[in-house]
Specification:
about 350 residues, alpha/beta, 12 strands, about 35% helix, elongated
Length: about 350
């Protein structure tokens, strides 16, 4: 909630906005006008929405609020990647990243302030978890991205700060608002939820028929290594996780799942790892995203060599697995999640009287 503990309009579904109009004694058609202002024009100023009756304006002023985070830092890389640090109403900050591609703009959305999973290669994990983000705070990231981006955001990936399944209810509401033709109107095929491997969350997605794609961070081919890099593996080991993914694929009509694999030099980038990965995903019809690790100061891991990356991919391709090497975007602005926030915090500590 925001000021006066009123619910923010941008966190409401179409049905909730229709009910709001009904409660105000106004026609439901005005819900469409509110949505057009919020999600087509990215304007959260209710007073600027044309043709709203006075009774509805007055009701909204008393029963809802507008919300827009403050952009406290913005970096732009040579490749066009933009990284934003957004301050929420309570002063907590999260990152969102705009990634340019051929004819498209993808936005990486955070779902939590920090993260509790503790992946050992992730900078966000070093700060721990502060709190979950609300649906409205996730929507606000998209609205800010649409305003700042030099083209329309077309793809949303919930791969920013946080583990989406640890904030499932708010994330599910966000996905439904984002994919609703009467909401933000993103195609479900252009929304991807990424998890570190929480098995119950995958089954919850199946049960709820959540309208988005699934991506899973695997990052290892043995439980011994995955226990070390993704501690949640101790609770949901690789074979149990893969079984859940297969159930998801079956339930979703053989929908393709994205397997994310961060390549860590000398840890999980060997020829043997590549061959084991082929066996693990055999017959699943998955796409494997290979992400060479983007090293950050203080990290215990190193980036893999170009030779190791190309050899790893070649082995997967020879096994008829779609494997794509994702080059690190925004490397010159440290675009990995958590790095901008860390840099800004260090600057503030050096200049304690600055904002």
């Amino acid at each position: 909630m925001t000021e006066k503990n009123l619910p923010p309009l941008i966190g409401m579904s179409h049905e909730q906005l229709v009910q709001l109009c009904h409660d105000a004694g106004a026609k439901p058609v005005h819900a469409e006008r509110i949505i057009a202002s919020l999600f087509r024009h990215y304007n959260s100023d209710i007073t600027a929405i044309p043709e709203l009756p006075t009774v509805l304006r007055n009701y909204l002023a008393e029963h809802a609020t507008t919300f827009e985070p403050e952009c406290t830092a913005l970096q732009q890389a040579e490749d066009g990647t933009r990284k934003l640090l957004l301050k929420m109403a309570d002063g907590k900050e999260v990152e969102t990243v705009l990634i340019q591609g051929p004819g498209r703009l993808t936005q990486c959305i955070s779902t939590q302030v920090g993260c509790a999973v503790g992946c050992t290669f992730c900078l966000t994990a070093t700060a721990g978890l502060t709190r979950n983000l609300s649906t409205a705070e996730m929507v606000a990231q998209v609205m800010m991205g649409q305003k700042i981006g030099n083209r329309q955001v077309r793809n949303l990936v919930l791969m920013g700060m946080g583990e989406p399944f640890h904030n499932y209810d708010e994330v599910a509401k966000f996905v439904r608002i984002a994919s609703d033709p009467k909401g933000m109107a993103f195609s479900p095929n252009r929304i991807t939820l990424s998890t570190s491997g929480l098995v119950p969350g995958i089954y919850k997605m199946i049960e709820d028929k959540l309208p988005c794609n699934l991506a899973v961070s695997l990052n290892a081919t043995t439980d011994e290594v995955r226990d070390r890099v993704i501690p949640i593996n101790r609770k949901y080991p690789i074979l149990e996780l893969l079984h859940a993914i297969r159930d998801y694929i079956k339930a979703r009509g053989n929908k393709r799942v994205l397997i994310e694999y961060v390549l860590l030099a000398g840890v999980n980038d060997s020829i043997e790892d590549a061959k084991r990965l082929c066996q693990l995903v055999d017959g699943m019809g998955c796409t494997v995203n290979l992400l060479p690790f983007n090293a950050f100061p203080g990290s215990a891991f190193k980036s893999p060599s170009d030779t190791a990356v190309s050899t790893f991919r070649d082995i997967l391709v020879e096994a008829n697995i779609i494997a794509v090497v994702r080059s690190s975007r925004g490397r010159d602005i440290s675009a990995a999640c958590g790095q901008l926030k860390t840099e800004v915090l260090k600057k503030r500590l050096r200049t304690p009287h600055s904002r």
